[in-house]
Amino acid sequence: MSVPGMRAGLLRIAWRLCLLLGTVSNRAGGDEPAPRWGDRTLGGRTFIAGTSGQSAFLTTHAGIRQGIFVYTVPSFPVAGLEPVDVRVAGLVEEIDVGVKVADVLGLFASAEGRAISGIDAPSIVIGGATTRIGGRFGLAFRVFRHKRTATQLSLRSSLGYALGWDLDVRRLIGQVLDDARESPPQSPDELEQRIRDLLRSDALRVALTPSRELSYIGALTLAQALGPVFGIQVAIGHEQRRLRAERYRLDTREVEVASERGRVLFAAISAEADLEPAGVPIAFQLEYLPSEEWNDAGQGFLAQPSKHTVTAGLYYSGRRNLQLGVLAATTRNLKPVQGLDGERRSGRPHLMFGELSMRYVW
């Protein structure tokens, strides 16, 4: 069978499976009409929790998100060599829960872990590897809910804390080369022994940089139903974060502390459509998230290029207490990276992201 034929066959199977799921969910729910109002339902429209994490709804839920992303830096300058393309891939796992305390108050929390590494030899040497774990806790307050217009407005506020470990392979290789220049090894066995001794010494502390990050996010969120099929969500927010990294210097045997502050203004705008009222349990969501960022590494806040993230998601909507879907996202207009020669910069990086998410709402 040809590739186009296989694709067409898979699409037909997926379509029949969605119709079957819709039939099963309709039978399980009996002949009762769908509710017009609920924790995340306005005027018969049940909304999707977007990727920005800033929802206008207060829910009791538990969810899990699994994602993979690829960060590409094109034409990265290397002293004395041709520029190389650096590609770094990462895995992300997130668990989030929420509790609706009252009609106007909700609590939410999340925990996240991610592992990042270069995907080829040049990318491993230049990009290194990173491990990061963190959590976030916050509250949501419903400010306004109007049934006639099917509108809800809320405030969200949260604190986050994360630990990270960055492995700089270039610093480790540089230490090996510096040692070899000062006292060249006389045989391969001597070189191997030196490398072993180096790995047992403080050299690994040179390559591994631990860090801590504290962040705060506040946002004003809006949900507006446009009938049972269409809906829009908007979030306007501000993030502040402080990063502290501890870098070990082998020459002085001391830890060098570097601090950086950041501020971000963002706006998340999403439009969604649900075909479930027409008997097809499929919902679509398209989200656009522009952001402005300022960083301060000790010389005052400096503006960074505006980032633009576009996300498209496909979700199963046959059950109103279950959100199950896949999405793809891309971030553009990222800041070029300083090359190893200290003069030239890379091409403009870009980020690609894919995710599988599931959330159950009580």
Tally of helical segments: 5
Strand proportion, as a percent range, falls in: over 45%
Distance from first to last alpha carbon: 45 Å
- In terms of per-residue confidence, which ranges show pLDDT below 50 for 5 or more consecutive residues? 17-32
* Overall 3D shape: elongated
- Whole-angstrom Rg: 25 Å
Order of strands in the sheet with the most strands? Answer: 3-4-5-6-7-8-9-10-11-13-14-15
The secondary-structure element order is HEEEEEHEEHHHEEEEEEEE
Mean pLDDT: 83
What structural class do you assign from the helix and strand content? alpha+beta
How many runs of DSSP E, i.e. beta strands? 15
The main pleated sheet reads as: 12 strands, antiparallel, barrel
Helix content: 10-25%
Notes on the structure:
The chain is α+β, with helices and mostly antiparallel strands. The protein has five helices and 15 strands. The protein has helices spanning 3-28, 121-127, 169-182, 188-200, 203-207, and strands at 41-42, 45-46, 61-78, 81-102, 105-118, 129-146, 151-167, 208-226, 230-249, 254-274, 282-296, 302-303, 307-316, 322-332, 350-361. The strands form two sheets. Strands 3-4-5-6-7-8-9-10-11-13-14-15 form a twelve-stranded antiparallel beta barrel. It has a two-stranded antiparallel sheet with strand order 1-2. A hairpin with a 7-residue loop joins β10 (254-274) and β11 (282-296). It is elongated. The two termini are 45 Å apart.
